[in-house]
Please model this.
Amino acid sequence: FILRTIFLSALGVTIIGILAAASLINYPQAFFDNHIASTMGYHNTLATFLVAAILIGLSLLAEEKNRWWQLLYSISNYFMMLVIMAAVSKGAWLILVLGVVMMFIGMPQGYRMKVFYYLFLAVAPAIIISNYFMTAIFSAKPSTGMVFVIVGITLVMGGWFLWRYIDSWLNSVKLSRPAVIGLITMIIILLILTINLVGLSDRITKEISEVTDIQHLSYVTRVDFMRWAIDIIQDYPITGAGAGGWAALYRQYQDYQFWSAEAHSHIFQVGVEAGLMGVLAFSSIWMLFIILLYRLYIIHRDREEKEEWILICGAAVAAIGLGIHSCFDFDLSLPSMAILLWSLFALISAFYQQHSREFRIKISRSWINVAISALLLLILYISSCQYLLAHFQFQTGLKKFQAAQADQQVVRSEQLLQAGTHFSQAVINDSLNAEYWSYLAYWRCYCCLLFNEQDQEKAATFREKSIVAANQALDLDPYNAEINQRLMQNLVNMGDPAGAIRSGRLLIKTMPNDPQSYVRTTELWWYASQYFEKNGRHDFALDFAGEIIMLDEALQNQLKKVEIDHPLWQGEKLTTIPEYEQIYRQARDFITADRNEK
Model:
């Protein structure tokens, strides 16, 4: 039932992708950047998900006796294979090939020909139709692609009908192993000849040619991601840098600028975020999975009934395929894919429990387990509702704040007060969200400047609370570039030298290869230096000027560290921009003049 549910959910995802590509429905981000992404949001992950579903579908087909279910599985596999081709993901294609090989190795001998036939029935029409389908969806009338999809369905139905006679013939002839291998080889050759005759889409041909190109962007960058991840793990070896550690830290370890919110390797992502302890725990789960799978093989290998082992084989191969692909992509960073993998793990564990004496223990008080589960579910539900409420409060506060600022001449005090109330409630319900705290600090700063001439006491209160909220946000998320920039301006306006210097240093540490980060930081620090100098705080003015000098040293060291001319460098090259050089010279002259006076 669970495997069938997974398969049917994959069918739903597939249909949404096909209809979106044909412009028959408007599903957000289901078809963008010339790729089918469906509900997954990322074409590589979609293709990997469907590969796992096809492997499960083949196992369901192999043990299914009802012909109508066989027809549904066959058409569904064809749909999924068509989307896998149209998604243009060489990683998913390689995993499909590897998964099929593993399935043939694990499948009982009497079922291999059936599995191969139904695989051929999905792959052959999908490859042939993909050429015409992809041409159609990129044309002026994408909906014409559905005509070719229907043609493919007709081919699959014909193959499904033909299998009844082929199966009877195979049972009567009793082919030897060499004969079966020869027959399979002939079918593969026939498929290759058909593909050569019909042709493949240029995008598919190009993607296939890149499989062996080890200098391709997808290979080179992944190797570099892993190298940077190893450097991070060396600095955070035991428990890691915490959730989101890669996104926060990877720029500090780069030798050229390249944007990637994920490490594109789950095992390295786990190493960065959970350290060696996390890697050990994750590896242990896989080891237990392999051990249980081997024990299930021992249990089933001498049994005449093979239907259950076929399902076990399909689930196991799908899980292994997901695991292998996740070593080179961020599939498991998506909750849906992680849930799929854990579900397959749980299925293997459940199959083993059915046959193992170790687990045949009767629980006399089953209500205890039910009560504990209900309690945990209640805690999760209450917590999620609280976080969702905080999100809505923050969004409402943000809209009120923007509305209050819409007219520069008239400040809508009622909306401004409501914005502050919503921001305050948001940080109460989700006190660990740095973005909420940063906007609360920004709102308090705005109110401080607003009341500065009207009510000095109230303005001072807003100032103190704004500084507290800003530092709370920096403590929670110190390597968030957007928050750092917002709070640096905020802390300069509030006259907090230590906070302004801290946020500037964090911004440079977070974005060491971005020249605009150096410009923004020096501009704000020089503004703060001049502000304190005018207000008689010469010591603070010197502190900011000194920070600018030290920042220039950091910039020169970073220029020596990175490869500015690296061909994969993204964004503006790191260099000394004229605006930055001018501020640096002013700060240097200011310090020199102070020394001469002394």
Remarks:
- Residues 366-405 form the longest helix (40 residues).
- The chain has 22 helices and two strands.
- The longest strand covers residues 31-32.
- Strands lie at 31-32, 35-36.
